[in-house]
Design brief:
homotetramer; alpha/beta; Rossmann fold; 2 domains; five-stranded parallel beta sheet; globular
């Protein structure tokens, strides 16, 4: 019998990203929020739950309580999966507990603070036979899917060069002025896992480049900096990278690029054509040809000049912009589709398919962070990215 | 006791706009869809309701049935308001019936096919003491609200010139090729209310210009054309307009502007500054100054350089694009806020406030359509827009 | 025997446009400045001539003196043509005198201040058998030529709609602040010929639209305004226009569009494709298709995707921008080519050919100004443009 | 007595860059071309000279002949300076011969094919007491000067990050298809000086970054590639760079970035603001602020919001685009101004001043090429740039 899928939530009582998870989950009318622990403070969790119109007995004080009590609810009530939207250092333990308790998982990125933890999570997912979606939301944008489809179909020819960048400027503005009073876990070496800029946004650039091209980054040469000096973790990262097909590239991430917001941009050049995508204008893909005019492709559910995966990822006709929340929702939707195939058709996680980032992508992300940090400390030019 | 608001729906079983209504209503977790009649074909309505996970007894075969049966449900179950997303010629009768039955109403635009019907709706809304929201979604975009706030605060100085345009190209593409087989109610003189291009998108341009400036269009000089000739209603409309403060302007709408999607754009020039907004890049507002550099304002919940109404209309920080669905949802959210003040605090419709288009705006739209049609048929230069 | 063509100049001792004429004439090494009267003040003229390294005996105190004395110089010394860059009200008399004296003419626009004078100039050009180039420089841009080539080759299909606009903002800035102290001939009803905004920049929009499409504007419906009120001529002009093939359009020009510089923009929509060109980004032409991605064409001498006339109008490879001076120089170059054919091959003016605006285009411009003024004063919707 | 400066030319009989030199030199009416050797083939040189309207006795068959015969002409006839626009491997010997013969020099970049030759040129310039202008034309653009003025005035605060890129795509198009038949000196290891992409366009990026910021690149980490494999020199170069003030950066140049033309772009981020400039839209400079809207500065001779050096580099009012040739001409103009101060006022080269690249900048460019090549061959991360 078809029904809405039931989501529980960890975190998201403050900050904006938890709310984005809820909006994304709600958008396509496939998922309902049924329970959660919204804060480590029980009172705050209860308040948040009430604001969300949840019954008080499905708002929990701790993750342990939630997993224990949800696990014993009737099949027709129990949450199907949990969305984890908490600081990085909590991802691994909560996800492991959720898998242990038999729940499917959607998890924020980076999924852990060490390669070792990430490896444990990969094993746990496979052992539990559950679905795991890593929230690399930029890969949910329709025109990123168009880029990927074109790359995989050979329309770019042999890919030779990839330039991916994610400049932000927030640390150069009010953050810097506020000085040492800034107390976010993102700049705490312990809680953030030894990396700020690379872990927070460099991993987005890494995943976007690999997703859109179908290639893997094999080697890194990194130059990290810490310009805002009342903290110790890097706020700027410049890297040369090499790909498994011989392509060369540049990857950079920055939190001190004054005046930039979320200017993640991807350029890929192949022997047949080049492409360019910019997150702040997400509904267009520029296609560059050798000896004829460049083309501006436009997202749109009915655009016959787009690949099928792209059209499927659009909700409305071209010219009506979709944005960040819809991209986010595309990951939820793909995950939900797979989960239905598991729950309704008895598919295995592999059979269930779905176009969303997996736990293995999370491991690749952690390996990338480690390689970047190692490279920075090294005098040798190239450091391999080893999973 | 706080609870989700309960929405019923008329239409939306096919086409994309019904789905946009549902996504917009769901986005902010304030509204739940509880019932509907999704098609004039009972079987199709039932199917659509099932796909939406509605219980069979809340999916109706006709509008009459829905209003009759919902009206007698217990207060804790009954729908609070109805969303009407059907062809133009049905808006008036359904909205009147809903008001008669005591429900609040959200209605697609144009809200009727004649000025006379529109006047009846204005009266009915006031008689019923219910809320009525006209779905002029473009006024839901945050940067349109920024434009309005700046205009009302005098930051543009005396407004002198307004250029608003809405070019689309769909009629020049596959539509034209398909020829007389095209059977949409939009080109049927009877069902569309005697106007195609002006009624469908010219009214958006009209409402956008008036909303963003706080001015009223008083006179129109229109040149309408019908280029795709297997039909009879206009597919292109060029107009000179005059405003109640003495400002002059241009308003045009077109369905034969080959290669355009939903390129609605607004430019306003005042004695102190000018502004420009473009729907296909909705998160920016260009501000033009006489003797200093132009500025690019960016939407974002936390941007201190924006007016409060703008920030309130943003869900996420700057640099993460919001789009059409979020703009739509802003109207739902403002309507929902007003409805809560009515239901929870006993506010009157006037006291309830809320930043969403009213039934009077719908009447103004119909008057504008009539003036455009009249002007086209006249040899006299100016035709007044009379409500 | 091949030699450089010899140019004389009237005006250009102050202001920027005279200097643009000289730069444009010099750019392609085909023309040398040999004499001139650069100011109505003999002393100022002499100074300007010295700054230009001209021998003192070729710098004149009056137009009469220049034409008289140049006419009797030896064939190997005498100027071949004169460039006229003075206020509008002087164009006709100087051009008529130059033709009378046997010189070819390049003249700024609008070429006269009345239709009657313009007619006299047409007759004089034909009677004299001399070349006459009207400096409508925007038609010199390569991508405007691409637009024209595509239109004439039928690549746009049947042209249905033309939107051409020329917003400037200078009157809303320091000009307005300076108030009545502003004493430019452009706002003097007598000297400007009864029109400011239409004569000064509306004629550019008019000529651009006709040149790029190959069509003629037959009817105008104009709404003119004067917002800056210490003067009397119009500073804003909104018009509906109709073309000789049945196409409809909008033409507007404005000097009070705060914050705009020289934002002349052309959009043409045909049954097969649409095009868009913007003077402030002149090296691109956007081509819009019904059901495939839009294309961005780029100017460049070697671009095989451009028409021949476009490539010929480019001096350098694509990606290296050319600008206003080069567009200007393209008119000089085309004029110079024709003049060589006259001087070296004995071609008649008609046989000499050349892609530059003629005296007849100037007459059309004056007729357009008159029709706009007449229309504004009339209550009837349409006023014909009669040459 | 004031007169035009007299220019001789070496090269420029074919290709486009020689013609650009002539157009740039002619633009401001300060310089006249008086002689040249336009090709290594005497017949072709004579033809080119005739096409340029030069007297036959000032068109030479060899550089030696030109320098020898011009040197003995009367002071009122003799060329003042020579412009060298030939393949890289000829720059040094010709420039040295010109200096030896007492002529001032304008030279294309890179000015030599080895650091040793570049050092010899530096010495020769100082020994000869002559002016030497290296044609790094991108530093001639007005908005690049605005960037520099803002950087030097401290308006960016402490500069932290510089991203400069120069992607071209020509080698991925017809060049690649033509295969081994491609015989340009640029890909000949001997003639090009051991580097193709870095020498040809990487040096432009290097000079632009240093000019616009006032900083010096001290260390390089380079990854060079050769994708088009019928040749041996690099066609793609990715580099991490470090600056003398502690700023970090990325510099890349590419000839295989399919579909790119001359997309040289500079982004600089400081503690107070960031700037962005793009050569294919050269008349704008984007200024990015921490907590207020970004600004779009526009080139224009009269724009009071620009620094003086910027305004001086503009020939016309804002909104009328200037381009590549005008930027080129700005270097000629600055050189001409300095030369006048030498010739007319007896100023020394140092006293003569002028805003144009010097011979020392050329030496820095060669040192940069060598460091990039050395770095690529090294396993150590950082290679110093040593002059």
């Amino acid at each position: 019998m078809r029904r809405k899928l039931r989501m529980g939530m960890v975190g998201g009582g403050g900050g904006f990203i938890g709310r984005v998870h809820r909006m994304a989950a709600a958008l396509d009318n496939e998922i309902e929020l049924v329970c959660g622990v919204f804060s480590s403070l029980p009172e705050r969790s209860a308040e948040a739950g009430a604001e969300l119109f949840l019954p008080a007995d499905r708002v929990y004080s701790s993750v342990e309580e939630m997993f224990r009590r949800e696990a014993v609810l009737a099949a027709g009530e129990r949450m199907d999966f949990v969305s984890i939207a908490v600081p990085n250092y909590l991802h691994a333990s909560i996800a492991l507990a959720a898998l242990e308790a038999g729940f499917h998982v959607i998890c924020e990125k980076p999924m852990a603070t060490s390669v070792a933890d990430a490896r444990r999570m990969v094993e746990a997912v496979h052992r539990a036979g559950r679905l795991f979606c890593l929230m690399h939301n930029y890969s949910g944008y329709p025109m990123v899917k168009e880029a990927r489809s074109r790359a995989l179909a050979g329309e770019l020819g042999q890919i030779r060069k990839v330039v991916v960048e994610y400049p932000q400027g927030w640390m150069a503005g009010r953050f810097a002025s506020a000085g040492v009073k800034n107390r976010t876990w993102k700049i705490d070496p312990e809680l953030a896992g030894g990396s700020c800029c690379v872990a927070d946004i460099g991993t987005h650039a890494h995943q976007l480049a690999e997703y859109a091209t179908g290639l893997r980054i094999t080697d890194v040469c990194a130059d990290l900096s810490c310009f805002i000096d009342f903290k110790s973790l890097e706020d700027d990262a410049n890297m040369l990278v090499r790909f498994d097909n011989g392509a060369r590239g540049i990857l950079y991430a920055s939190q001190i690029s004054t005046g930039e917001a979320n200017a993640i941009r991807l350029r890929v050049y192949g022997s047949k054509s080049g492409i360019e995508w910019f997150q702040e204008d997400p509904n267009h893909l520029v296609v560059k040809w050798p000896d004829r005019p460049r083309e501006i492709l436009k997202a749109g559910a009915g655009n016959i000049d787009l690949h099928e995966a792209t059209r499927k990822a659009c909700r409305i006709p071209h010219g009506h912009p979709e944005g960040f929340i819809e991209a986010f929702a595309n990951l939820y939707r793909e995950f939900a589709g797979a989960l239905r195939r598991v729950l309704e058709d008895g598919a295995s996680p592999v059979e269930a398919g779905g176009d969303y980032p997996r736990v293995e992508d999370g491991l690749r992300g952690l390996a990338f962070i480690r390689a970047a940090l190692d490279s920075h400390r090294s005098d040798v030019k190239w450091t391999p990215v080893e999973v």
